[in-house]
Please model this.
Amino acid sequence: MAKKVLLATVKPFSPTARDQVVAILEEAKYDVQLLESYGDKSELLAAVADVHAMIIRSDKITAEVLDAAKELKLVVRAGSGHDNVDGPHAKEKGVLVMNTPGQNSNAVAELVLSMMVYMARGKFNGKPGRELRGKTLGIHAYGYVGKAVTTVAKGFGMKVCAFDPFVDSAAMEADGVTPMATAEDLYKQCDYVSIHMPATPKTINSIGKDLLGLMPEGGTLINTARAEVINDPEIVEVMAARPDFRYITDIQPAPEVQAELTDTYGDRYFSTPKKMGAQTLEANVNAGLAAARQIVDFLDKGVEVNVVNR
Ligand code: 3PG
Model:
């Protein structure tokens, strides 16, 4: 009997990317099931019942979902962050979780720089704004996305610094990036800081007034990583205390914080209506196809790559 593979995307891929993903899985003779833009968790619980593998995005794969998936062997998160999957519970059940690191980095990088330009030009209000050239950008966490942001920022003539306790200074220097010894140094020295860390117990709520208060006049924070890493009450405090400070994000905070930031600081705050860093046709194709190939390699040949729940 053909193996069953589910593509479950509450925020769907572009149809072109989706069709290419399906083509790879069908060529491998799998029975492909699609669950896109679903409304309720119950639909996901029903859809996973008899599938052997699944591709997801930010879809929440909780213990309840994993328990409902009796045949499941592999979950591939088409993307980078996997905080939406209960990895330890999957491991207990013998289910591998993989991601597709780096596949959507350029999409995020282009969004970061375009939002920076938008804010620097006064949201295109027609008045004289500022340029990015010659300004200093700090990358907080120098992974695939941090590197991609660096590449684009250098095209704008920005100086780039980075702080990442898990990356060798030599690797940053090889990319023409100035390594910073501490997060405090990064925030102190950079006009812009762009956050690219995962949400972990250590990073959640870690960006607040202590770091942001160090930023120079006109300091601007960009968050396209995870909403959870920002300390919401403290960012509101910083916006109130510093009329020069600006905040840009593609992941909105809790509704009441979002309302306060928009209503009170609308000229210095910008958020996209939906999380959209990875929302390009190219990123959908890159991440979706990588995920489909990882499934074929695993189900047909036992190849294990990018496993995140060992
Ligand atoms: C990621 O972790 O890969 C990004 O946050 C993209 O998430 P998305 O697939 O929900 O757009």
In short: The chain has a mean pLDDT of 98. The CA atoms of residues 163 and 180 lie 5 Å apart. The pocket of 3-phosphoglyceric acid is lined by residues 11, 57-58, 79-81, 104, 275, 277-279 (CB under 6 Å).
